[in-house]
């Protein structure tokens, strides 16, 4: 077998790119879940982000505006989820599923006239020639700006949850919404903000997919990445830096299997294509069984509706 | 004491179907300890929620330090100098002590400084606390310390305490009272909410008594007898349950060296619990909340499986059996949490009757439920135990606490248990319903059943038990005859003062 | 200020009304959506909801109604059992695919032997078994390792789709198919075909199975002890454990039944309306069935009606595509919208809306 055709440096550089949509979606969902809300609509928000970003980029010829539009489109959708679950107290699991189904439909509808088009590519950053450095050059100093943004978001979320008062209130709301309410904190306000942030992140991830990775619009192009982002939040035990680890691990597997497909190994293509999903399941099993009877560090109010009865 | 610190004038608050507070007025002087006395459901909690800014009154007004006072939210109340210790703690288990304290303060200092302050104040008042520990790992008494420290750090003018002693041993109550008297001497006013008369007589200068949302009187608790206060609170003479004389039979239930892990992340595991329970006996198990009560009930009801030989029913090993098999053998149980454990909130009383009664009352034949029979069973419970409800088709959550509790206890008793385990039979239940439930337990024992009552209400246990033991951190004290036990001894069985000390200043 | 007040007991009136109100609201909002796309909203709504049943070509569409409703109802009935107990199998699409593959594989294995009495029943068993086993993966992982069944069942859909592609291109490919992907057409194989029972009615064995499933689920939920335990678990898991319900067995039961029913739906589809295993065999019935289950209020009879209605939107959507040029994706968005409205209006079942200033913070 010939592994020589797979260049490890390019592999790492490209796995960072491949992981970015999932990383963005997962870091957003992490904040949502820490506030006590389970939004299963990540897949739907990502795809709406992908199509909104693509359309705006085609129309304006500006990838930057496209990313903004992707984030905004998905945020809008996430607010539908917010209104239904927080105000109308609908079941979070069912509403999240609805969000995904609706998102897949509406995105196909929005994008049908854009299917064969291409967008201008946004340049990568090149850090004054540092990108010429061997090995670390292509990995660290020659990436798309949104890749750096995603890393910044991971650090930012970690810092926000760990050190800021707002972050502490968000954790408190996710842990025990009744107590947070009786101390005078706005449960709904906190959760709306978290849901909107989660929507924006998922939309950004979707836009990165349609503008950078593919870069094209096709129906259902997120192909389960939203669900994998949800799995990564569980894998990460609701911790920011472990989301990074999980997303890059998954990205690594995807890129590797694509490379193996391209290198023409004697493994059925379908088996390679399903490997990321199988490995995600495997990792979920290992994580959840290792956690034992305590049930892990899931926020205690996760998925429960809040209604101030007082 | 010319102008009172807080004046409450004609506060009214109505909820659908019930007026929680009806034209309530009273005032609290500076440096006074004022009691708010009333039964469950009298409207005490609603009243203090209005003072704390959680609920806005429909009408009426308050003045605080001579100025009009109408807080829109707890932040405003705290900024004015009001602090509150909640009955059901407002704490976050997965956050540490310092974070919990910070969340209850308006302008907390940076975390490191706050941790130092927590250590300092907790030492001063004899309430030792480690700021870095997770609240989920603390005992109920320690959790209350977190709440109290959180209040003290804000130097409040008015401290509201909602039923603070229900989670404390008698020794801990003494220490709490020392702390409160200390605060009083420093000029802090305290609004003390309770239905325990002796506590109020020991601590408070004045008392306002609420019944069904209305002020029915005020009294000086130091000069008014407990009986008079009780009469004002309940509004009628209470029937005290009577135990009939009966002799104890053979051992019905035996627990041998039972150790089980708690299913909850922050629960208390049972450690080497042993006891034996005889026919006709009422064994009372005391202890502060969170010391393994839920786990003991779970292990006996069959929800938590145990090694087969650690639980013996009439000599047979049943530790490994599930709830249904145990019911078949005559071991029945009623858990503490009525809504969501003993009963399903959204289901009708008919369905809730069948929930545990289908086996012994023959409501199922060939796996099909006979709903006509189930309705008859529910009606029988309602009739026999005087459950106030429009009918058996009503959802469990529509019943008041007392009525649902009568239904739950009645459901088990009508299945003629040989051994009956009940946790907190009268928690949050009004006095007349509580008396009826206690009487039912005594009658059951008189007919020869073995009864095990787990309760945090020591007065209740003293009233109905023939023998007594206490749970402390998952261990059970030796069982003693209830006759001649002093409060002091009971307190020590419950774990004494748990390392608390009297305030140092 | 508007506020919600919990009802003492769920409102029966609203429990029945909510789906109707949601359908009406969806028509209004959907009409607005179509108008935004430049289609006459009234014509679009009429084409989708009225013409297939009462219009000129109703004789054709009415048959299609059962063809589409059959798998939706069959899958949704199974899903509803789990949803009622708080067990979320959202991977019915995968179980549907695997059921179809297993059933078709058994049928094709006998080709060209003619023995309908043996082959077709064996296919039915294989289809149900395939779906059952595929659903047992999340079931066993949940009960043994406490792994989230929502994520596992969903991720397995993507795995199933890859298996489908592999089967269509590889092991099950028609050897006489001139290299085209896809299996032999089972409808042309007498012993394996699931053809219409009454010509033009759309009635095939899958529709019969759907009706039988509705009846069984109805009896199970209203009379049977297991059904009582399913409802109890959904209402309050802790009370269910107190009652003596074994959570492990309940999870496996709910996932197993829903998987088997989804597998059956796949088998009846592949042997009937679809005819062959191909790469694009699955069209999302497993996901739409989730909407059907909720629209039917997780009640078997409700699901029957909801399945017919949803089938109508499929057929009407196709008609609108042909006559009005409405894009195919519009109907998917339309169905998603329906679920949103349903979930939103559902609040009225458990809460009362109050207007006025008696509100709190």
Care to give the gist of this entry?
With 505 residues, chain B is an alpha/beta fold.
Describe what you observe in this structure.
The complex is a heterotrimer of chains A (310), B (505) and C (361). With 310 residues, chain A is an all-alpha fold. Chain A has a single domain (8-119, 143-294), classed as ABC transporter involved in vitamin B12 uptake, BtuC, CATH 1.10.3470. Chain A has helices spanning 8-34, 42-60, 63-87, 92-111, 136-140, 145-163, 165-175, 177-182, 187-213, 225-235, 240-262, 269-290. Chain B has two domains: 6-234, Rossmann fold, CATH 3.40.50.300; 251-493, Rossmann fold. Chain B is 32% helix and 24% strand. Chain B has 16 helices and 23 strands. Chain B is globular. The model of chain B has no long low-confidence stretch (mean pLDDT 89). Chain C has a domain at 67-215 and 238-293. Chain C is built from 15 helices and two strands. Chains A and B meet through helix 7 and helix 8 of A and helix 2 and helix 3 of B.
Write the layout of secondary structure elements.
The complex is a heterotrimer of chains A (310), B (505) and C (361).
Chain A: H1 8-34, H2 42-60, H3 63-87, H4 92-111, H5 136-140, H6 145-163, H7 165-175, H8 177-182, H9 187-213, H10 225-235, H11 240-262, H12 269-290
Helix pairs in contact in A: 1-6, 1-9, 1-10, 1-11, 2-3, 2-4, 2-9, 2-10, 3-4, 3-9, 6-7, 6-11, 10-11, 10-12, 11-12
Chain B: E1 6-15, E2 18-28, E3 33-38, H1 44-51, E4 59-64, E5 67-69, H2 74-80, E6 82-85, H3 97-103, H4 111-124, H5 140-152, E7 158-162, H6 170-185, E8 189-194, H7 197-203, E9 206-211, E10 214-219, H8 226-234, E11 251-260, E12 270-278, E13 282-286, H9 293-301, E14 311-313, E15 316-317, H10 323-328, E16 331-334, H11 349-357, E17 364-365, E18 368-369, H12 371-384, H13 401-413, E19 419-423, H14 431-446, E20 450-454, H15 458-464, E21 467-472, E22 475-476, E23 480-481, H16 487-493
Parallel strand pairs in B: 3-8, 3-9, 6-7, 7-8, 13-20, 13-21, 16-19, 19-20
Antiparallel strand pairs in B: 1-2, 1-4, 4-5, 9-10, 11-12, 11-14, 14-15, 17-18, 21-22, 21-23
Helix pairs in contact in B: 3-4, 3-5, 11-12, 11-13, 12-13, 13-14
Chain C: E1 2-6, H1 12-36, H2 41-49, H3 51-54, H4 58-84, H5 92-110, H6 116-145, H7 149-169, H8 205-222, H9 225-235, H10 237-243, H11 247-271, H12 285-295, H13 300-324, H14 328-345, H15 347-350, E2 351-355
Antiparallel strand pairs in C: 1-2
Helix pairs in contact in C: 1-2, 1-14, 2-13, 4-8, 4-9, 4-11, 4-12, 4-13, 5-6, 5-7, 5-11, 5-12, 6-7, 6-11, 8-9, 8-11, 8-13, 9-10, 12-13, 12-14, 13-14
